[in-house]
Every structure is written in C-alpha cells, then in structure tokens.
Amino acid sequence: MRLNDEEQALLAGAAGEAVRRAIEHQIAVGDFFGAADFVPVTQAHVMADTESLGEAGVAWLEQLSAGPHAPPQVRVPTITDPRGTDFARAAELGQAEWMLALERRAIAAFRRLGVTMTDTCIHYQTIAAPTRGEHVAFGDTGVVSFSNSVCGARSNFEGGPSAIAAALTGRTPRYGFHLDAQRQATLRLRTDWTPATLDDWGALGALVGRHAGHYWQVPVLEGLERPPSSDELKHFAAAMASFGSTALFHLVGVTPEAGRLADVGGERLPLAARFGLDEVRALRRSWAGDGGVDVVVFSAPQLSLFELRTLAGLCEGRRFVRPLLAVTSPQVKPESDRLGFTAAIEGAGGSVLSGMCFYQSYAREIALARGWRRLVTNSAKLVNILGGYGYAPVLRSMAACVEAAETGVVA
Amino acid sequence: MSAVILTARHALGRVVEGLALVAHDGFSARYDLDRIAGVFSRPTHALAGQSYVDRILVLDTAKGGVATAWMLHEMQSRGVVPRAIVLNTVNPILAQGAAFGGVTLLAGFDVDVTAAVAHGATLRLDPARRTLEVLAAPG
User: Fold this and answer.
1) Residues in a beta bridge with B122
2) Whether ipTM exceeds 0.90
3) Which helix (H) or strand (E) holds B131?
4) What is the distance in angstroms between the Cα of A55 and the nearest Cα belonging to chain B?
5) Which domain of life is it from (chain B) (predicted)?
6) Considering only the top CATH level, what class is A288-410?
C-alpha cells in the first residue's frame, strides 16, 4: 500500500504502540485485497459483544486501552453495536454472572479509548444516518448493507478489530465498496411480488442474498410496486447480508445510486433470477417447526419506535403464556417507555430489552438455561443465525408471533 | 512432485500443512460452529458434527456475520481453531479475522477449490507464494 507521510509516521510509532499495531493490521488487510492506499473515514462502529470476544478478546481490549501512559484515543466518532446483555434483565435471560463481568470489563476498556457506548445496530435510524459518499468504517453486516445501499455511504464490513483500528487511525484501506467500480451492479434480479410485512421483506432479502451468494456480488432488483419504509429496508438489508454476505444492493427507483437501472450498469446484465410468492413459501417451509413455541423474540435488527408502537397495539387485551422478548436500542427504549409502548407490551407479559441483541447475548447458553428451543420470530436474519445455536426457529409475521405467545402454538 | 498446485489471488499467514475438510458450503464462525466443542454445529451444513480443530477448511465462501473477526482470535487462544481456511471467495471479515487471529487464509482461485481438493487430502499452504499444494490423497 502507498502510505502518505502521516501514515508512515503512524507505522513508525509516532502516535504510540497501539496505533502502530492498528495501522499494521490495516496494511495486512489492505495488502490482502490489493488496496492502493488509505481513505479517511468520518465515523467508526464497533461490533464487540463479549460472546464473540471471549476472555481473550476482552483481555486484548484491556491491554489496548491500558497503554504505558495515557490510553490511546479514537480519532473519529466511534460508537458500538449491541452489547451481550441488558444488565437490568440478565436474570430473566438466564445469564450468568461471568457473562456480566466480561461485559463490564469490555465496556470499561471501550470507555478508556474514548468510544461512545451507543449499543445499537440501528444507529442509522436513531443517531446519525451516514450521507451519500461518506466514507465510514462500520461493523454489523446489516448496518453496512443499509448504510451503503439506502444511505449511499461507503463502507466494507469492518469486524471489531478492524473497526477499532480505523477508529484509532482515522482511516481504512481503500478497497471494496469504497471504490466506484465496485459499486456497480453485478447481478440483475426481478421480483414479481412486493412484500407486505417486515418478515416478508426479510424473506425477500434472504432469497436475494442466498442467490447472490458472496460479498462481492452487488444485486440490483427490479419489480417492486412501491418504495419500502425504513423498517422494511432494515429487515431486507439485514437478511440479505446474513444469507449472502451482501454489503451493497440497489433497488431501481428507490436507492440513491440506482435512480435508473442504467445508473448502476444493470442494463448490461442478463436477468439472473425472478422471485415470487412460491419461492418465499418454499423458504418458510424450510423452517417449519413442530407447532410448539418456547419463546417469541423480536430482535436482529433492534426494533424502531414504530415497530414497538405496532407491537404494543397487537399486545392490547392479551395475556401471554410464553415469554415474548422485544429488543430495542438504548436510544429508543426511553421513548417507548414515555409513549406507553413498553407498558402495553409488558402488561401482556412481554419484556422490552435494551442495548443488546438476542443472538449476540449468549443465545446458546440462554437456550440451555431457560429450556428454549422452539423460537418464533419475524426476523429472517435471526432465523438464519439461530439454527447453529441449537434452536428450531420459525419465521412468522409480527401479528402471528404475538398470537403464538398468547396461545403457545404457532399457526 | 505433487499432482495439484493451485494459486490463490489472496493470501496471508504462515506456511501450514494439514488435513482438509472440504465442502461446497459457506463459512461463518457465528452461524456454523459450536466453538466450545470445536465442531460444525449448524444442522444443514455439510460438515455438521465434524471437528474443525487443526483442520484446513476448504469451503466456498465467507458468509455474513462480523463476529468471525473476533472469534478466530478467541478460538486461537483456546487452541480450538482451524489450522487454515481456504475459500473460493472471501469477505473482509474473514481476512480481518485471519490477520488478527493468526490463521492462514487463501482465497480466489481459477477453479472451484472445493471441487479440486478431495475431502481428507493432506495439504500444504504457502501464503508467501500464494500456493495450495496437495501432498497426499485421502488416506
């Protein structure tokens, strides 16, 4: 990689050992992908739940933030993805004290680095949406997919160590979706069906992602009969990233870089596949379940205020016989409380959790502690992930999920 | 003289030798592994139930999930980690995680590497030369 004078100095240790190691890591990744140089970034977003970090990752963070003198400080606004718990509700989740102790250590280390603990995967809805052309270093695949595609920002998937490195150096290797050429469509798809509900949007995202198959494919989708809402695009993007590792997509006439098909080079591509209701039904059948329900979860991504509003309305007059968990951000939770949504959900027997995400919160251990296996959700992303954690997940609409919590049976 | 030497477009890490676990499935440490038991745990994965510890994983592509960047490091600390990962296509997370966790990684070939390498073959990976060499057929 070509380094400017400042980057040469960082590599020589002018800003301390932590920053030297950070840029060394970035050069290794940049060289791997053939990056020519670095690009400055305006923000970083760090995924670092302690189930992923483990003892080794937390110790690494502590060492990084200890420093021989003053701890190194992030150079750009740096925020965090969901944590591994909602401390106030940990007992309800069956989480053990050692999990909470790891979380406390990680949070303390992040604070020493100057990181702002936002604990959210929906910061584009709640804190600051990135703007078109803005170069950022974001973690969480759904965040990157939404930011790239819907906001027109520029980021690769930045896993925790790389996002921290970007935060400390203020830059990231210029490869992948930071480059104009990589943002052109590579896969032309059509849908004959416009989703109606959030789980439908997730299912369509899953189909597109599964067909795309890998990170470097950039799907362009035609055929939608109406523009999706922010929450619909959130579920669509998160599912596509989960199933296909997709970091950038275009919707013709909807997303900012694809006003017309030709704007992203789509007119030169053959139509690779069409999706309709039959494909969606087949996808849903692959997670059929046995009709029983142990737990209902709304998470992955965290819920917006509007989702909580809808959920609160569905909960009125009901009494749940199964646990219902609704997970949101620390920014949305107080508003949900203030507007009475939390009371409506919890009045029916549900729980509104804050600052965590279900699958990032020791989901395997929770399953063992609480005896939860048959999980019903409206998140296609969550369904995709939890199969590997020992759950038998089922995808249903929010309304059907609420019914399942009330009856103990999934229709 | 080995029968098969493949050249990767992307490589990092150190020279390693080992037995190959091969499937045309994707890879994510979060989605696919029981990282405590050291086995593939996703029921629909072609390698479900098999131990990945000290094996060279030869798979199709990296799947979503930024957690892999941390998890390779954590698995390395406990010695419950693949010796290397070989993919047709890679995403940044695998590259970042391999660099951070000290796991050898090769990706991008002119052929489908999951078809070119037999399950159970003995491999030698040389990242500096970007080569994958089949030392021995499955035993």
Assistant:
1) B19, B136
2) yes
3) strand B131-136
4) 7
5) Bacteria
6) alpha beta
